[in-house]
């Protein structure tokens, strides 16, 4: 059963990425949706999970919040180092850089690996917990695939390179899940990792993806797409929380 759920993440990620490739001419709408998804995952999934794990494990959530700030600053500094933001900050459409696309997608791939780790560790705790975590990962891996391709294309990478990163993103949770057969992950380390990744999502959603969505062809439809992303993840996380 555990292997079946892990393999389902691969399918979900691939489907999300193919949707992004097929409709790349409407990328601003996809990016608007993606921004809503990223910010919603933070609010409705990651932050509640961090505080829940901290409370149950007797950990200080302040460490996770420090990791959040560090995650935000790491990617902010990375963009500055690679000169993503030029002197004209308002001209968001001109700060594309293939390296940043690869860096951002690579961070999502790393996260996908730990998604798989989460599934494996959940099944180590109990079958019920493993299933709930697996359903959550499968639900948002569609968005992970979409996000990976959207980030690559938004920074002027080719379709071919975007597909390569999509495959890596799809394989990552499978490898992560299988890796848990050989080690365990402490709850204290997990909340620090979640905090760091939360900082990354906040930065990418608010400072990169959302401005990019509105850089060209900005319209009310793009705003609606962002709201749809928020509502979508609110429904998904609410449903999974009730299981």
Domains (count)? 1
Structural class: mainly alpha
Question: Mind describing the biggest β-sheet?
Answer: none
* Overall mean confidence score, pLDDT: 78
By DSSP, the count of extended strands is: 0
Could you tell me the strand content as a percent range?
Answer: under 5%
Task: Tell me the Rg in angstroms.
Answer: 17 Å
Figure out the total of helices: 8
Head-to-tail CA distance between termini:
18 Å
- Helix proportion range: over 70%
Looking at the chains present, what oligomeric state does this protein adopt? single chain
Low-pLDDT segments: 83-94
Shape: globular
The helix/strand series, from N terminus to C terminus, equals HHHHHHHH
């Amino acid at each position: 059963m555990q292997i079946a759920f892990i393999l389902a993440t691969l399918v979900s990620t691939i489907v999300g990425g193919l949707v992004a490739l097929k409709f790349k001419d409407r990328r601003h709408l996809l990016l608007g949706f993606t921004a809503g998804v990223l910010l919603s995952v933070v609010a409705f999934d990651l932050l509640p999970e961090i505080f829940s794990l901290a409370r149950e494990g007797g950990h200080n959530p302040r460490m996770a919040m420090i990791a959040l700030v560090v995650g935000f600053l790491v990617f902010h500094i990375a963009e500055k180092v690679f000169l993503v933001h030029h002197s004209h900050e308002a001209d968001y459409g001109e700060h594309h850089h293939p390296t940043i696309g690869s860096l951002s997608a690579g961070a999502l791939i790393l996260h996908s690996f730990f998604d798989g780790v989460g599934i494996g560790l959940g099944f180590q705790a109990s079958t019920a917990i493993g299933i709930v975590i697996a359903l959550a990962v499968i639900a948002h891996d569609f968005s992970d695939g979409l996000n990976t391709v959207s980030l690559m294309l938004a920074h002027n990478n080719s379709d071919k390179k975007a597909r390569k990163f999509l495959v890596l993103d799809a394989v990552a949770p499978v490898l992560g899940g299988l890796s848990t057969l050989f080690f365990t992950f402490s709850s204290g380390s997990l909340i620090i990792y979640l905090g760091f990744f939360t900082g990354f999502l906040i930065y990418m959603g608010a400072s990169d993806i959302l401005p990019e969505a509105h850089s060209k062809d900005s319209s009310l439809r793009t705003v609606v797409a962002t709201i749809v992303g928020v509502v979508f993840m609110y429904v998904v996380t609410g449903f999974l929380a009730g299981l």
